Amino acid sequence: MASSVFVEEVDAIIQTVNHAAALGKISADAQKNILRWLREPGYEDARPELVRHIREEKWELLEDLFFTIIPFGTGGRRGRMYPIGTNAINDRTIAESAQGLANYVRQVVKKNELSCAIAYDTRHRSRHFAELCAEVMAAGGFRVFFLNGYRSTPQLSFTIRHLGCDCGIMVTASHNPPSDNAVKVYWSDGGQLVPPHDDGVIKAVEKVNTIHRIPFGEAVSRGLIQFVEGEADTAFVEAVLRQSRPGPRDLRILYSPLHGVGASAVVPVLKAAGFGDIFVYPRHAEPSGDFPNVPNHIANPELPEVFTELIHYARDIGADIVLATDPDCDRVGCAVRETLDRNSPWRLLTGNQIGALLAQAVIDRTAHKNQDRDHFYLVKTMVTTELIREVGEAHGVRVIGDLPVGFRWIAHEIEKRGPEGFLLGAEESYGFLIGTHARDKDAAVASLVICELAAQLKSKGKTLYEELISLFMRYGWYRERTISVSLPGKKGLAELELLMASLRSEPPRKLGELRVTKVRDYGRGIQFLPGGPQEPLVGPSTNTLFFETERLGNRAAVRPSGTEPKVKFYFFAFEPPQMFSDAKEAEEALEARLTTFEATMREEVRRRTSG
Question: Which of 92, 130, 281, 369 has the most CB atoms at less than 10 Å from its CB?
Answer without folding.
Answer: 130
